[in-house]
């Protein structure tokens, strides 16, 4: 089966993700059109070579990428389909189940829409932080519905391939559970830890080493975007965060009780943490062979 | 006031910290003697040039460094003083208040003992992981008691200086509160997060990026040593961990409730986490100017 090569892509949303993939596609010779509620973001993206501003009378693109925060995806998708902006559509939101339900309720054309989530980011956000290599080697989750048209699926798979990412296909619920574990819960835990530092004395914070810096690094991410993401994956994140909180409450209680029971409880969680860390490195380690050996003063 | 230069130091405990400072001192021309319950650790340290095995008839050293886990410090200190191994004594344990109380009760000579804690470490532990530059630029907390002899204080300050570290003097309770904030709570939180990964499916873990790797990195630390450290700083760690757990429970509850209240609660903690992270970088950032800009895919 031959599949059409992408020739034109419209990116709606010129933030970190949208502009990064626009840069990547432009460098592959694809005609990229850019749209964003903020004209300055479009101008900055265009100035960086990510594409040209979307013309009002542009013909339908081979693919439209909705690169907005989760809460805007369905509105933007619906409107783009109503205007006939493309022959296929995808998004890049970090939560999938709720968006799919909203898209069904709203009456979006689900044959032409393949929900997507590139698992990539940076400590920085916005158009200026975009880089074309952002997705290289990273997972890109696709959650196509049962009625999706093969040509739409092929167009989105070609997007993933052009970005150098690795496609993983799974249902929206499986996506949401998985990212709650590997991304959303770590974010909220890092944030809760970092929040304790807001009122700490500077001379206390000055004692911190690489351990605290590493553990709180992702807490510097965009609060507005992450509030949107977390509330769009609320049930899965809540369940996972409650498990972490329950273990912490148990540890605090054991530490207050003291004695042998304390050592057994604390030692037990430390060992389980060791196993979890080892499982993570086993699953991802080949991509980062130096990880376990890097210097981490605590 | 002239102070004597260190000429001889005995290090009891050839783990990461003891061997690292022995290597540093040996390279400064100081005669270092090594002792450890494990003869293989002494032999490995000696073979790496950290010093010579402690001779049974050695004259008293200018300084004895007790580099054992917290639970062994007072026994080792008491015995070393009873044997007259040195003219001054320090330790390197990461908890100070309980050890001080135990040293008082045991009848250790408090005039010759300056409790210490070099705030340095690595992802690895043990003799083989030692490196002489481990303490360069790092804080080294000293908690001298009211009866300490000036010569003992001077000897320990010279040790800190020779290791290239920066001395911070504070009471044991202030030390314990500070390290609960910047080191012990982050450790337990990272461990609780990593523990959730122990039974996760490998194909889920394979989706993880740098965010989860950074957030759980310190969970790979030595479980036995850290159980000892955390139980020796139990009240301060319990209080701090309870605050993190309470925020996580609040977030989970808000996520389950949904609606506008949820966005306000989650957004509020994300903003406070942002402030905490900024406060940490403000307090430590000059030492790590690239920190905020390093790539952290989530």
UniProtKB/TrEMBL annotation, chains A, B:
Residues spanning the membrane: none
Keyword Oxidoreductase belongs to the record: yes
Keyword annotations from UniProtKB, A to Z: Oxidoreductase
PROSITE patterns, per the entry: PDH_ADH (PS51176)
Prephenate/arogenate dehydrogenase domain span: 7-286
Family membership noted in the UniProt record: Belongs to the prephenate/arogenate dehydrogenase family.
Record-given protein name: Prephenate dehydrogenase/arogenate dehydrogenase family protein
Origin species: Streptomyces spongiicola
